[in-house]
């Protein structure tokens, strides 16, 4: 997951600000809301400052912008949630929902969404909300925008290497690994890929492993499906990109920012990441320098396994005494005109059907490959890690186990088994504690 781009924006913890969330100011003019951004940057703060001013002009409701750096966000929200002092509207990440819904910190949103359900794109209703209802028995978020992964490629490097990459034809994982190899030239300080070795490292690897399990993570009884000979070999192949020198040595410590910076800066030739990175590429590179390929097809069944989700979403804190006003703010932020401006700024795909025909997202726009995948009958959205609390595992053991293997401190089998066993234990416990819950299945839009 992304690291914060700027730590200058520290969280506003002023007594008067906290008091604002504790008063029942009603749902109309004169209400004062607190809004918490968990991925602050100068551009995001500027956007929210402007849009909150517009919101006040239209509704009379004021909004106080607060922020907390991403690396501290999970812990901070946990403290605020436990003390029933969460801001009225918070930006949440899907990986927190297991913990936050179990603790009762988030307000169910179905009553607020009501008859506006069909205004949202299929990516929201058939994927995000369907998954939330299956995993948490309710809807707790409204996405800020949608993103789907792709492979960013240095087009100029590919041309020099004699590679003929066609987004419409696609490719397989074997093609991708061969491309990474051919784009590597240490003498020129060029490496084939931006390898992610730090926090979030297991995320794209997990999707690759699921390309061998039909998109499933667990059997119906909660048994993890990726601790087997086939997946162990896939695990080794994924890690071989780093071990064979197709990524810089310090990539073992890379997170989101380092991956993107080194791709745009000319050190790496490919980058697997979400559509939001396109905004940075548009600003940093010339059109002839970069392109986007779809995620590779499975070498086992030919399907494209690709996550489709929102980087963040808007939720209402259950402790809020201004829930109607909070919902008005979420409606305003996701109104088609505001949402498309936000999506262009952040590199996302709009969540409302009303903006689906914008040329920015058309066949000749910068997001064409991402939209193409959403319409591909062979694309499957694989299962998530699980509905149980995951923050501690995601922030530590998941990438630490990979690093132990990359550093030669343990075998690939042990590395994968340790993660698999922990996920399986949590999944089985969750099923035992929630006997009416079924294991998540892969999803599609078609």
In short:
The chain has 446 residues and is an alpha/beta fold.
Describe this entry's structure for a reader.
By secondary structure, this protein is α/β, with parallel strands linked by helices. It contains 18 helices and eleven strands. It has a five-stranded mixed sheet, with helices on both faces. Strands 5, 6, 7 and 9 form a four-stranded antiparallel sheet that branches. Helix 2 links the parallel strand 1 and strand 2. Helix 2 packs antiparallel against helix 14 and helix 17 runs antiparallel to helix 18. The chain is globular and about 65 Å long. The N terminus is likely disordered.
Note the beta-strand portion. 5-15%
How many H/I helical runs? 18
* Cα gyration radius (Å): 22 Å
Q: What are the secondary-structure elements, in order, as H or E?
A: HEHEHEHHHEEHHHHHEHEEEEHHHEHHH
Major sheet, described briefly?
5 strands, mixed
Give the proportion of residues in helices: 40-55%
The strands making up the biggest β-sheet line up spatially as 2-1-3-10-4
Coarse structural class = alpha/beta
Q: Determine the N-to-C terminus distance.
A: 28 Å
Low-confidence runs: 1-25
Averaged pLDDT? 90
In one word, what is the shape?
globular
Extended strand count: 11
């Amino acid at each position: 997951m992304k690291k914060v781009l700027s730590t200058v924006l520290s969280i506003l913890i002023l007594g008067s600000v906290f008091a604002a969330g504790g008063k029942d100011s009603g749902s109309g003019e004169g209400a004062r809301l607190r809004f918490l951004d968990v991925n602050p940057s100068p551009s995001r703060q500027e956007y929210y400052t402007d849009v909150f001013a517009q919101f006040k002009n239209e509704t009379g409701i004021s909004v106080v912008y607060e922020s907390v750096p991403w690396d501290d966000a999970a812990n901070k929200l946990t403290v605020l949630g436990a003390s029933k002092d969460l801001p009225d509207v918070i930006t949440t990440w899907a990986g927190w929902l297991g913990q936050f819904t179990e603790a009762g910190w988030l307000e169910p949103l179905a009553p607020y969404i009501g008859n506006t359900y069909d205004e949202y794109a299929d990516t929201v209703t058939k994927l995000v909300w369907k998954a939330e209802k299956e995993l948490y028995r309710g809807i707790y978020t409204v996405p800020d925008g949608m993103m789907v992964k792709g492979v960013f490629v240095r087009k100029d490097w590919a041309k020099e290497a004699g590679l003929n990459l066609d987004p419409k034809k696609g490719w397989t994982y074997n093609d991708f690994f061969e491309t990474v190899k051919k784009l590597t030239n240490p003498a020129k300080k060029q490496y084939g890929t931006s390898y992610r070795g730090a926090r979030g490292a297991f995320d794209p690897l997990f999707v690759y492993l699921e390309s061998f399990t039909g998109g499933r993570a667990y059997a119906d009884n909660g048994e993890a499906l990726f601790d087997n000979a086939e997946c162990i070999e896939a695990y080794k192949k994924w890690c071989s990109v780093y071990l064979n020198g197709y990524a810089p040595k310090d990539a073992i410590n890379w997170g989101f920012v380092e991956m993107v910076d080194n791709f745009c800066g000319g050190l790496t030739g490919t980058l697997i990441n979400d559509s939001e990175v396109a905004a940075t590429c548009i600003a940093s590179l010339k059109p002839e320098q970069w392109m986007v390929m779809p995620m590779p097809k499975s070498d086992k069944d030919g399907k494209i396994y690709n996550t489709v989700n929102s980087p963040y979403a808007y939720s209402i804190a259950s402790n809020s005494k201004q829930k109607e006003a909070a919902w008005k703010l979420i409606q305003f932020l996701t109104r088609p005109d505001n949402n498309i401006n936000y999506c262009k700024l952040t590199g996302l795909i709009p969540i409302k059907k009303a903006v689906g025909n914008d040329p920015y997202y058309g066949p000749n726009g910068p997001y064409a490959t991402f939209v193409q995948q959403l319409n591909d009958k062979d694309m499957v959205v694989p299962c998530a890690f699980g509905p149980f609390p995951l923050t501690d595992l995601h922030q530590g053991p998941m990438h630490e186990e990979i690093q132990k293997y990359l550093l030669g401190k343990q075998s690939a089998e042990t590395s994968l088994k340790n993660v698999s066993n922990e996920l399986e234990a949590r999944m089985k416990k969750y099923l035992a504690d929630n006997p009416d819950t079924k294991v998540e299945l892969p999803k599609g839009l078609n």
